[in-house]
Design goal:
single chain, Histone, subunit A, 67% helix, 0% strand, globular
């Protein structure tokens, strides 16, 4: 089985942010989940843009909370941030159907991805402060916490 793109950088990222070890199956889980969260944010942005009489999603249409903004700033300061941004540029995520991003919004998406990633990594410490290597149950609890909020 091939390694998902960026496995080493994401392994380092989780060690730096939450002092936990993840493996390639965790990276797949993580990427799938964050991609789904981005899709959900895009759909909310589309609905907001339509409500405001626009077909194209502007950055202000995205439901970015204060907490997510803070995590995005934390992401920006990380040594791994530029490497993760470059991976995301190479692996462009297409928005869900009927979603069109403005150029500024597309440029913001790696930062949103980074902020969500920081929040997800930190959520493991909330779930279990002594956790060293998350298992399936930990990932499911973390995902459920996000689903309750987003």
């Amino acid at each position: 089985m091939s390694r998902p793109a960026g496995v080493p950088v994401f392994e380092r990222f989780f060690r730096v942010i939450a002092s936990i070890q993840i493996d390639r199956s965790d990276v797949r889980r993580f990427r799938d989940f964050v991609d789904q969260q981005i899709d959900d944010i895009a759909i909310s942005g589309r609905n907001s843009a339509r409500w405001n009489g626009r077909d194209v999603i502007a950055p202000q249409d995205l439901p970015i909370t204060r907490g997510l903004q803070e995590r995005m700033r934390e992401f920006d300061k990380l040594e791994e941030a530029e490497e993760i941004r470059e991976l995301l540029r190479q692996d462009v995520r297409r928005p869900p159907a009927e979603v069109t991003f403005a150029e500024e919004t597309e440029q913001l998406l790696p930062e949103v991805f980074g902020g969500l990633s920081v929040a997800l990594a930190r959520s493991f410490r909330v779930i279990d402060p002594t956790l060293a290597n998350p298992g399936t149950a930990h990932w499911e609890r973390a995902f459920e916490m996000f689903r309750l909020v987003f």
